[in-house]
Structures are given as structure tokens and as C-alpha cells.
Amino acid sequence: MQPQLHFRITGGKKLHGEITINSSKNGAVGLLCASLINRGTTTLKRMPKIEEVYRILEVLNSIGVQTSWDDHTLTITPPKKFSMEKMDIASAERTRSIVMFAGSLIHALPHFKIPQAGGCKLGSRTIRPHMYALGNFGIDIAPGGSAWSVSRSKLAPAEILMYESGDTATINAILAAAGIPGKSVIKYASANYQVQDVCEYLSLLGVQIDGIGTTTLTIKGKKNIDKNISYSVSEDPTDAMFFLAAAIVTRSSITIKRVPIDFMELELLKLVVMGFRYDILKRYKGENGKVKLVDIKTHVTKLIASPEKLYGRPYPGLNIDNLPFFVVIATQAKGTTLIHDWAYEKRALYFTELDKLGANTALADPHRVFVTGPTPLHAADLTCPPALRPATILLIAMLASKGTSTLRNIYSINRGYEDLADKLSKLGASVQVFEG
To answer: Cα Rg for the chain, rounded, in angstroms?
Structure first.
């Protein structure tokens, strides 16, 4: 068992300099699951070296997939036959992304089992949207004890309506449709960044997909997908939002490079309404030739509370994963901001942990929290919540807190961020990693 890692943060320091945004966690794990549909070799460039990726790789290796790293380039070669009976159950249970194996592996195996997954503890997270979507193609997902049984009868193309516009459920449906000859239509699909990454990857494999970036996808699937291809993972908007929030809360001016602007425009507009100011220094395309990137320079500004409640929505709404960052930002805005986190039953409860650092929050119910600011933040010794975004906003608050704070058991942060302490240190923050 790996030792627990912790952060020691001496806060109250101004940030300065520039930071380059990582490629996305959600895009990376979606592509890893999608690679199982390809009988050829997949090379993924700009892969983040994060715990969530490592867990998926441990599962892939255990069932016979060969993988190798060259810096941040990952090569994935499938086996002639998947060894599902040898699956690394412990690693599979630590990531919810494992559910996306259903849509890809079903083309190689008539039936198999995958463990019921973990990931962030955010309340009730049903897989019914996956079951309903895949059922239309002839795929059955049945719960049983600690695992889901996945099986197929006769696969057939279909026109389906997503029960919920979830990212992983949409990817599962896309992967199912991609391996079935004929035309399938997916309506009310998520159009989020990780979904677009998977669609662009499949397009390189010869799967024709119309409507990428919209909520209606038309897919012409292929029975045999066997091609050696290379694809570059797109940038992470939640990584960009982390550094935006860190700059705002520490009252710092920094340059944030490679921001995927199509997935950040609404967040930036909401911040501008609250008084934030920034400049776009440069516009260009990402390495995959699809994602639009910008370099942003933040300015030190006084904030006011959002005049309307802030809430997440499926793309092109405010990213549900970016919503928690507005909680820590609101601690430094004059007035009271209402954050409505409708998507998860438990995540808003974690937001009140900021009170231990001097924030003034009032929980209206498990989904809504009022944040009144500005309040001076102070140091504290806290343990990371078992959820990625609530953990990162505690870290941001500690960066702005006078004194030395400790943030314990940072595994939930390392699930989604690579070398975060080093990156923050290069911006002038004082963040040390220690074991204990």
C-alpha cells in the first residue's frame, strides 16, 4: 500500500509568472477506454500522468493490454484475446471510468463483468443512463453483487434518446454505436470536451460521426476497427479554472497558457460580471488541430457577489466540475453568492469545509450554499474530502490564508492533477509534499 501524501502550504503569497494547462483527466480516461475498440495500436500524446490514468492502465495491463510510456506519450497495443478473469479488481474499483469498458469491450466479448466503480464520493450516481442507452443497441448491463454483468444478444444500430446528458454515458453510447455497422443517432448527447475528444479519436479510426460538439450525433459504425493511429489529448478546462481561481483568491496577476476557450467562455463571463478582468494574449489551435486555445493574463480586481445564482449545466453551460471553484472565489467577493450544485447530493456539504479556513458559508440544503464575503482566510489543518474539486478548493483557500496550513491525504487531488505542488511553487507559492 502506498504511503499517504500531504501538502504543507505557507499561504498569503502573491503568485506570479506563467503556467501551462495540462491535458484533461476526463479526456484521457475516456480515450483509454475508447482505445479498447481498436485492434490496432493507439498512440496517445500529451497524456497526463495522474492517479486516475494509472488506475485505468493497471486494469488494462491486467487484462492483457500492453502499454508503454515515452515521456507523456502512451502507446497502447491490444491483446489477441482479453483476459477478463485476470482483471485487477482493486484498481478497477477505484475509478468510476471503468464503466466505459462496457461500450468498447462488448464488440470483442459477448459477455464479461466489470466491478462496481468508485471515484469521487458525491452521492447517488446511478448507471441507469448507461443501461438505458446501451440497451437500445442490444447490450444488457445487470447489477449483481459487487460487479456489473455486461452481455449482448444481437447488436444493431439504433436511434436513441439519452436518459441523462452525462459525459460517461454518452461516451459509452458512442463506443457502442462505433462498432456496429449502420447508422445510429444519439440525441440529447453530452457535447462536453471529453466527448469531443473521443469522437475525434474515433473519426481517425474511420468511424464517421456528424454533429461533434452538438447534442445530436449521427454515427456510421464499422464492424472491424483495426488501425494504427496517433491522437493528442486536448487541454483541461478544469485545470484552467483551478489556476484562474488561485490567481483571483490570492489577488495575483499571472499568465495561463493553453486555455481551451470554447469550454471556458461562460465561466469567464460569469467572473467578469463579478468584477474580474483579464486579457487574451494569443489565440491558436491545439495539437489535435481541433481545440481552440488562448493565453490569458489575469488582473488583480475587487469582486462583487454574483447577482444571480451560479449553477452547473451540461455543455455549453457552466461546467459542473468548474462550479466548486466559484465557491472559494465567492469567499473574496463583496456580498452573498448563491451556489446551486443540483447535480450531486453530497458535494455542497464539502463546500462548508471552507469555514474552517475563515469562510462564511450557510448551507440551505444538500444542494445549495450561500457564501458571504469578503472574509480573511486563515491557516488550518484539514483532510481532503473524498472528491476531487472540493479538495482542490481547500488548497486554493490555503494559498490565500495567512500562516501554514496542512492538507492531508491528497490522493483525491492527485487523481486529476499532475505535479501540482511543483507548478504552484514555480508561480511563487509555498507548497511542500510530505509523507506521513
So the answer is: 21
Over residues 247-305, the pLDDT tens digits come to 999 999 999 999 999 999 999 999 999 999 999 999 999 999 999 999 999 999 999 99
pLDDT tens track for 417-426: 999 999 999 9
Provide the percentage of residues in the chain whose pLDDT is more than 90. Answer: 92
Mean residue pLDDT of the chain comes to 95
- Domain 5-22+235-435, classified CATH 3.65.10.10, yes or no: yes
Question: Which is the CATH superfamily of the domain at 25-232?
Answer: Enolpyruvate transferase domain (3.65.10.10)
Confirm whether 5-22+235-435 and 25-232 share one CATH topology. Answer: yes
For residue 146, the model assigns a pLDDT of 83
Distance CA 219, CA 210 (A): 7
Q: What is the pLDDT of residue 436?
A: 84
- pTM of the predicted model over 0.70: yes
- What is the domain partition of the chain in residue ranges? 5-22+235-435, 25-232
Asked if residues 335 and 373 have their Cβ atoms less than 8 Å apart, the reply is yes
Q: Is the pLDDT of residue 321 over 90?
A: yes
Can you give the pLDDT at residue 122? 47
Show the 3-state SS of the chain.
CCCCEEEEEEECCCCCCEEECCECHHHHHHHHHHHHHCCCCEEEECCCCCHHHHHHHHHHHHCCCEEEEECCEEEEECCCCCCHHHCCHHHHCCCHHHHHHHHHHCCCCCEEEEECCCCCCCCCCCCHHHHHHHHCCCEEEEEECCEEEEEECCCCCCEEECCCCCHHHHHHHHHHHHCCCEEEEEECCCCCHHHHHHHHHHHHCCCEEECCCCCEEEEEECCCCCCCEEEECCECHHHHHHHHHHHHHCCCCCEEEEEEHHHCHHHHHHHHHCCCCEEEEEEEECCCCCCEEEEEEECCCCEECCCCCEECCCCCCCCCCCHHHHHHHHCCEEEEEEEECCCCCCHHHHHHHHHHHCCEEEEEECCEEEEEECCCCECCEEECCCCHHHHHHHHHHHHHCEEEEEEECCHHHHCCCCCHHHHHHHCCCEEEEEEC
